Amino acid sequence: MIDAPDLSLAALAPLLFVFGAACVGVLVEAFAPREVRHPVQVAVALVGTGGGLAATLVYAATHEWGDGAGDVTAAGALAVDKAGLFLQATVAGLSVLAVLLFAERGLDPARSAFVASAAVPAGSPRDREQLTATRVQTEVYPLALFAVGGMMVFVTANDLLIMFVALEVLSLPLYLISGLARRRRLLSQEAAVKYFLLGAFASAFFLYGLALVYGATGSIRLGEIRQSVAEDGGDVLVVLGLALLIVGLLFKASVAPFHSWTPDVYQGAPTPVTAFMAACTKVAAFGAILRLLYVAFGTEEWTWRPLVYGVAIVSMVVGAVLGLTQTDLKRMLAYSSIAHAGFLLTGVLGLGADGEGSGLAATMFYLLTYGLTTLGAFAVLTLVRDGDGEAGHLAQWAGLASRSPLTAAVMALFLLALAGIPLTAGFTGKFAVFRAAVEQGAWPLVLVAVLASAVAAFFYLRVIVLMYFSPPAADGPTVGVPGVPTTVVLAVTASATLALGILPGAVLDLAEQAARFVG
Amino acid sequence: MEIISAEVLPSEVVPAEGLLGASWLLIALPLAGAAVLLLGGRRTDRWGHLLGTATVVGAFLLAVLCTFSLADVEGRSVDVDLFTFISTGQLDVRAGLLYDPLSAVFVLLITGVGSLIHVYSIGYMAHDPARRRFFAYLNLFVAAMLLLVLGNSFVALYVGWEGVGLASYLLIAFWYTRPGAATAAKKAFIMNRVGDVGLALAIFVMFAQLGTTSYEGVFGTVGTLAGGTITAIGLLLLLGACGKSGQFPLQAWLPDAMEGPTPVSALIHAATMVTAGVYLIARSAPIYDETPTARTVVLAVGAVTLLIGAIAGCAFDDIKKVLAYSTVSQIGYMFLAVGLGPAGYVAGLAHLLAHGFFKAGLFLGAGSVMHAMDDSVDMRRYGGLARKLPITFATFGLGYLALIGFPFLSGFYTKDAIIEAALDRDDAWGWVLAGVAVLGAGLTAFYMTRLMLMTFFGRARWADGVHPHESPTVMTAPMVVLSLGSIGAGFLLVKAFPLSDWLEPVFGEEHSAEHVVAPLTVGLVVTGVMLLGVLAAWLFVGRREVPVTAPVRVSPVTRAARNALYADTINESLLMRPGQWLTRALVWVDNRGVDGAVNGLAAGLGGSSSRLGRTQTGFVRTYALGMLGGAVLVAGALLAVTSG
């Protein structure tokens, strides 16, 4: 006799929305006439991500939580719990903004940031033709939707195999859309291949770790692993498996020393895709790290604690120090992302034994603030352009404030937030994770984090100094007038960055309430 | 030493109702004026001065109405609760106003004299391209000053205190392209800062010891503190008062502040802001009641300043500087009075109000003279102006008579009251203080008569091309009004409608003790000394020709007086020079030590950044190797942790 697995449609609704929209997108790509394809795809993608966001919020608001943290559904494969929903909502919300960035048609003279026909060899006559043609291709929307769906499964996965599948579902579309840049196509394609190769390498680590943990505990369910580990203690196989699992996840979170792909891929990928990756992938990867360490290895805190300690320091130092000598803004933001991954790990360290610390709430809050800010910063990058696409070189940004004060001001706000200056979201987030870490006695780590922040502040502030106090370059870039989508993104991210800096109370409370995984 | 402790009646403070509930408008009106003028920019150039004047006149009318409604309130004290200003942990500062008889008289003085001076400025600044900015700053000043006297806590007072400091700085440096004005503004600002630190520390001590900064809370519980703490609070408050009021040892900024436009000197540096110190000490009466030591220091400061100001006033040729030192000296009288304790509060405040009228009138007169003389301030180039400027002469003359204490004019009543209060101490110190005050009266008569003689009498010593003319009505009218105050204020405040009755809810009932020396005797002695001073001035200045350039070979006394008793020299050698040495030493340490370390660190970080950057080769194989290395490290670390 076969028992039908329990499926809570309400709990799965966010995923259904996103994946459903992705499937509809594929059909639209195949059947809709070329003229209407772009608007329809944008609409479908917005409905998918926005519906996903709405569904999580509605479910979180209407579900009868009682004392529990949430439910396990889909035959134990998915854990739809408070923290999972918070992370799902964060991913979905950020991806709404990212889709809006994808949809911008006013900035590039060819009406899109994505190449029309990715298979054409770069530099060939046909490639030069499509550089000026205003034909746009729209596979990017369903691909991005699949990635979003993968991320949302990733943060709610209740067993390692689902987690692995989700990891692949979110990664494969990302590899592809990284290579879709319309300008500087070789760089973009190189980035895609690098990301793919290294991603496959990291996936292998994860899979190997999965196998070892299964071998040692006889289960792939996080909760069962926890029980088994608590009973038998961590033997070598489990510890080795944990190490390999963490390596796979740290790669996705671009934590040093598994970060080397980040600068190259961030720089090569189309900027809206970079924004999407920097914001959403980071949330998803940290969501999975938190769940793994909280649920499966929560009792083994003293095993992974020194590791997280060390990796956090390496990541902060590498990100901050390497960022100093970058001359390309996208690369600079990539190193900033590596440093921020380190700061996020201080929050992970604040989890404490069995997740008793305030680290989970702090890290989730930090993910939200960092996602919004970094998305906004990359959105500003899409505005400043020269003849060859975006003007990413630092020198080109000199004196930008005199030419386009509003753009410079918004960029300055995001940079200040990334540097963690008070009255911006970045400060509140950093404060939250640092406090969580200190409560767990990790003040030496926080000391290093503060020093690294000071070093990193240098390269953020350098851009502001350049924009405001340097004479404009003679043949400087032009600042494009953003269309409605990019304007919306900038307005939302900038006001959220300010609001979460000045009045973070409500969202912090929400994160605190949501800080529970179902174990 | 025995100081009679007064029974301060803790009058009931009731919540404000009706018109008094809207007394925040007093502050809001000029503040809105300042905001409109400053934010409106050039668009408001044409009517800015009218708006600026209108807000202050409006505030004055409101103040008059408020005072009448206050008179009807039982206990004559109302509290206007506005909003929570600071709320952190234990500190809970409610922003609110306290409208009581003491603040009411100050509000009337500030808005009344303020209105007249605004009107006067319309004419005085008519040809200045930045007239709008001037009125904006004046409005800002009035708003801050009103907050200072109306606030119901030391924190609110402090906000106003700093606000008037800012306005004063902006207005002294109004003609900021003149190096003299810029320097004077900086000097005023820095010396005020010294005093402000005292005030701030006093507030910190109050909060630390009492947990509150509201008048009600502090005055209610100050008696529970240790004697040393109360004395510390009293002395720190006095330091703040000395800075703002130009009292010894912080008096040197006030004469320099005359670099600002003359209406500013009249309003801020004579009538209102510089008397804030007196207000602070009078307001803090319950604190000083507990600390005879601090009160004695107030007395000493007042007496010393009184003489310093009067002596310096005898030697200067700059008409505004003479008036400025006169202000320093007269505020010395007020400090002396409030330092006498309950007996002197009312006398000091009456003198403050009377002084506000006649000194403002004198400054406006001086401004009118300068207006006539192409902005020259050198009295040696004046002379014989009485006939050319009849209205100015008449109003200035009345102010002069009031200041030197001519019988039955303002200063006569109020100064005599202070001397009587000093004698009422009935000890040796009382006689010394009264003697100082009488001596000061003689000196005042001397320097003011000298000023009158050099300005309005004698032969005309005008520079070439100067054609004196009377000022327009918009300037003379306020002078006439103020001269009426010079005539009547003293009589009104001391005899007709005694200020002591009005202030009774604040300072308690007046002591009706027998006077030690009959008031008539005091009046006769003071008048005699005053006449001696006038006579001396006539002998030294009036009889002979005034040289156009100041004589160089003069007695050491004159030289000391010309240097304002070397106050600047003392400040420079005691504070400025060591300060400069310290700065230089710190700069050296900063350049060599701190910068060296910072630059070295930055270079080190930059170098390691470049070296680390070489690992970023762009080859996937290198990256993969790095990841493998990382994975081995991670696995090794975890195994080490579990097995170790």
Q: What's this model, at a glance?
A:
By secondary structure, chain A is mainly α.
Write the layout of secondary structure elements.
The complex is a heterodimer of chains A (519) and B (644).
Chain A: H1 9-31, H2 34-62, E1 70-73, E2 78-81, H3 82-102, H4 125-132, H5 140-154, H6 160-178, H7 185-217, H8 222-232, H9 236-252, H10 261-268, H11 271-296, H12 301-323, H13 329-349, H14 359-381, E3 384-386, E4 389-390, H15 400-403, H16 405-419, H17 425-439, H18 443-469, E5 478-479, H19 484-502, H20 505-514
Antiparallel strand pairs in A: 1-2, 3-4, 3-5
Chain B: E1 14-15, H1 24-40, H2 48-72, E2 78-88, E3 91-99, H3 101-124, H4 131-150, H5 154-172, H6 179-210, H7 215-221, H8 227-245, H9 253-256, H10 262-271, H11 276-283, H12 285-289, H13 292-313, H14 319-339, H15 342-372, H16 390-404, H17 410-423, H18 428-456, H19 473-496, H20 499-502, H21 504-507, H22 519-542, H23 556-562, H24 567-613, H25 620-643
Parallel strand pairs in B: 1-2
Antiparallel strand pairs in B: 2-3
Helix pairs in contact in B: 1-2, 1-4, 2-3, 2-4, 3-4, 3-10, 3-15, 3-19, 4-5, 5-6, 6-8, 8-11, 8-13, 10-15, 11-14, 13-14, 13-18, 14-15, 14-17, 14-18, 15-16, 15-17, 15-19, 16-18, 16-19, 17-18, 17-19, 17-22, 18-22
Write up this protein:
Chain A has 519 residues and is mainly α. Chain A has one domain. Chain A has 20 helices and five strands. Chain A has helices at residues 9-31, 34-62, 82-102, 125-132, 140-154, 160-178, 185-217, 222-232, 236-252, 261-268, 271-296, 301-323, 329-349, 359-381, 400-403, 405-419, 425-439, 443-469, 484-502, 505-514, and strands spanning 70-73, 78-81, 384-386, 389-390, 478-479. In chain A, the strands form two sheets. In chain A, strands 4-3-5 form a three-stranded antiparallel beta sheet, with no helix packed on it. In chain A, strands 1-2 form a two-stranded antiparallel sheet. In chain A, strand 3 and strand 4 (389-390) form a beta hairpin. Chain A is globular, with a radius of gyration of 22 Å. With 644 residues, chain B is mainly alpha-helical. Among the domains of chain B are: 305-562, no CATH class; 614-644. Chain B is built from 25 helices and three strands. Chain B has helices spanning 24-40, 48-72, 101-124, 131-150, 154-172, 179-210, 215-221, 227-245, 253-256, 262-271, 276-283, 285-289, 292-313, 319-339, 342-372, 390-404, 410-423, 428-456, 473-496, 499-502, 504-507, 519-542, 556-562, 567-613, 620-643, and strands at residues 14-15, 78-88, 91-99. Chain B has a three-stranded mixed beta sheet. Chain B is globular and about 105 Å long. In chain B, 51% of the residues are buried. Classes of the chains: A mainly alpha (519), B mainly alpha (644). Chain A binds chain B through residues 193-194, 197-198, 201-202, 205, 234, 236, 239-240, 242-244, 246-247, 251, 257-258, 260-261, 263-264, 302-304, 306-307, 310-311, 318, 321-325, 455, 458, and chain B through 602, 605-606, 608-610, 612-613, 615-616, 618, 620, 622-624, 626-627, 629-631, 633-635, 637-639, 641-643. Chain B: Its main location: membrane. Chain B: Keywords: Membrane, Transmembrane, Transmembrane helix.
